[in-house]
Amino acid sequence: MVILGISAFYHDSAAAIIRDGDIVAAAQEERFTRKKHDASFPKKAVEFCLEQAGVSMEEVDNIVFFEKPFVKFERLMETYLAFAPRGYLSFKTAIPVWLKEKLFQKKMLTDLLAETAFGEKPSKDQKKLIKSKLLFSEHHLSHAASAFYPSPFDKAVVLTMDGVGEWASTSVSVGNGKDLQITKEIHFPHSLGLLYSAMTYYTGFKVNSGEYKIMGLAPYGEPKYADLIMDNLIDVKEDGSFRLNQDYFDYATGLTMTNKKFDELFGGPARTSETQITQREMDLAASVQVVTEEVVRRIVKNLKAEHPDIDNLCLAGGVALNCVANGKILKEGYFKNIWIQPAAGDAGGSLGAALAAYHLHHNMERRNTNQTDTMKGSYLGPVFDDNDIEKRLSEAGAKFTRLASEDEMIDETAKALADEKAIGWFQGRMEFGPRALGGRSILGDPRSPSMQKNLNLKVKYRESFRPFAPSVLRDDVSEWFDLNEDSPYMLLVAPVNDNKCTEMTEEQNKLFGIDKLNIPRSEIPAVTHVDYSARVQTVHKETNPKYHALISKFKDLTGCPVIVNTSFNVRGEPIVCTPEDAFRCFMGTEMDMLVVGNCVLKKEEQDPALAADYKDAFELD
Questions:
Q1: pLDDT for 414-472, tens place per residue?
Q2: How far, CA to CA in Å, does 266 sit from each of 161, 262, 487?
Q3: Which of 54, 113, 219, 472 is at a distance of 20 to 30 A from 289, taking alpha carbons?
C-alpha cells in the first residue's frame, strides 16, 4: 500500500510517501523552488516522492492532506464573530482569499494533483480518479502521528504544541501499537506557540522563522520580564493548562501579533527589523524562553502523573523544535525516554498524515520498532551519484578533483577541518526537516576561537550571536557533554562538561551581551554558547556512515570527536538541494572548500568572475 502525504498553504509545504508503513521519501518544497518557507502546493516535492518510490499517481492508494480546511474556516468565522467589531480589517483581508481558494481546497488539491500527474489539462475522469484517493487528516493528529509512529516506542504519550491547527494549539494523545487517540486539547486563541511568536515579532524578527533567533539570543539576557509575562500575558495552572490574555495581542483578528497595550507593558514599541539588537531584546528573549520552559515542564509533569504506567514521551509541533526546553524536560526525568520528530513543524505534517491514514484509516499494524526509530536518520530527500555530480558541476563551471576513493575524500576533508577551513559538505540524501544533519552541512573546527563568529559573518551572512551545533560521535558524547542519550536530530541542548569548560573572569562577565561572544569558554568554543550549552547532534555509524567516518578521522588527527555543523545555506536561502545549489552557495560565500560526493573543490582554483556573479545573486555585498 502506497500513501502520499501533503502539507501546504501556510508555511513549509512538503510531501512524504510511505509504502506498507515504511517511510520512502520526504522533502520540503522550498528545497526545490529555492523560496524559503515556500507555502505553495508542493508540486516538485510530490514529483520527487513519486520518483523515489518508483510509482505513478495512479498507483498511489491514498493522497492525504494534513488538516481539514472546513474546520479551520469554522474557527476563523467563530473567532471574528467572538471579537466583532474588532478585527474588521483582518476579516476584510482574509475572507476573500478563503472564499476564492482555501474554502474549496478539495477541488483545488484535486486539480493541482491531477495536473502534477497528467499534465496541464487533465480530463474529468483523471480528476475523478484523484478525488477518489483524497483524504483529510486533522492538523494535530498529523503532528501526533508523525511523532508516535516513527518512534521506537510501542506505547507513548504524545504532546503536540504549535501556533494553531484547525482549533487546537496544544494537544495530548496516547499511542498504543497502531492506535493513536487525542485525549485533550487547548484551543485557539490560547497558544504557547503564538506567545513565543508574539515575542519574536516584538523583538523585531520574522514570525514562523525568527523563533530560532529568540532561542539563540536568550542566553545573552536575563529573564527580567518573566514575572511580567506570567502576571499579565499568560495564566498558567499547576497542570500546565493555560490561557492568554487577549487584551495584549492582535493575532486573533488583527494584522499584527501584538498591540499598543503590549507595547505599554514592555515600555515601548516593537523593535524594527534589522536595527541594533539591544540588551532589552536579549532580556525579552530570555524571559519568554523561561516562561515557555516552565509551561512545558508543568504539562509534562502532569502528563506523567496522569500516565504513570507509560515511560515514553513523543513531541511534535513547532514548539517541539525548542531544543533548550527539550533538553530541560529530558533532564527533569519525568519520562524515561523522549523522542522528537525531526520535522516537527508543519512540513512533518505531510508524513504524519500519510502514517495516520495507514494505521488509523486502513487499520494496519505497526512494524516492530523496539530498537530504533524508523526515520532513517531523516535522510529522506534526493541523492546524487558521483557521475551525476561530476556532470552537474562541470556544467556549472566548477573546477574540481574527483578523488579515487571515499577514504581519500575523508582524509582530505578531515585534514582541511583540522587546518580550520570552512567546508561545504554535500553527501548522500538530503535531510527532511529544518536541521542539517551531515547531508547538507557547512563544517568547521570546534576548537577554533574564531570559527563561530567567522562562519556567521563570512559564510552564513547572519547575526553574529547565532550559535552553532556540535556533531559528536555517539560513543564520545558523554565525555564532552552532560548527556548520555541519542540526539541524532539536533533537538536537545545540553551543557558542555565542566572539565572541558573555561570559567569566565569577573571582568569578562561584566561584558555587554554579544561582547561575551568573543570569549572562549571551553575546549570547543565554536560550539559552546554563552551559557556553556550546546545543541548536540549524536552521529551514528548505522544512519550516516560517511559522516561518522569523517568525524572519526578528525578525532584521529586532533583527539577531538566533535565538529561544527551548520546548515548549508546563507541567510534567507533554503538549505541546498542539488550540487548546483551547493556550488552557487560555495562561490557566493567565503567557504574555503566544497566536498560533493568524492569531488573536492578549492576556492582558490575557481573562476573569480563566478564568485562575483553568485555574490550578486545572493545580494550579499
A1: 999 999 999 999 999 999 999 999 999 999 999 998 887 778 777 777 666 677 899 99
A2: 26, 6, 37
A3: 472
H helices, E strands: number in the chain: 22, 21
Of 526, 527, 549, the closest CA to residue 537 belongs to 527
User: Cα–Cα distance between 250 and 88 in angstroms, integer?
Assistant: 12
**Chain segment 19-53, per-residue pLDDT in tens:** 999 999 999 999 999 999 999 999 999 999 999 99
The crossing angle, in degrees rounded to 10, of helices 88-100 and 69-83 is: 160
> Which residues lie below 8 Å from residue 160, measured CB to CB, with a gap of 6+?
140, 143, 144, 147, 168, 170, 171, 172, 173, 315, 316, 317, 320
* Phi–psi pair at 121, nearest 5 degrees: -125, 75
Parallel, antiparallel or unpaired: strands 62-65 and 562-567: unpaired
CATH number of 185-340: 3.30.420.40
Predicted confidence (pLDDT) at residue 616 exceeds the cutoff of 80 = no
Q: Residue with C-alpha cell 550571536?
A: 465
Say which CATH class 2-148+346-367 falls into: alpha beta
CA 272 to chain CA mean position, Å: 25
For 583, residues 6+ apart whose C-beta sits below 8 A from its C-beta are 393, 396, 398, 594, 596, 601
Residue with cell 516584538: 202
Q: What is the mean pLDDT of the chain?
A: 91
The region that residue 214 occupies, defined by phi over 0 for left and psi between -120 and 50 for alpha, beta otherwise, is alpha
What per-residue confidence (pLDDT) applies to 69?
Answer: 75
Q: Please give the Cα distance from 194 to 258 (Å, whole number).
A: 10
- State whether CATH 3.40.50.2300 applies to domain 386-618: no
Within 23-68, where are the H helices? Answer: 30-33, 43-53
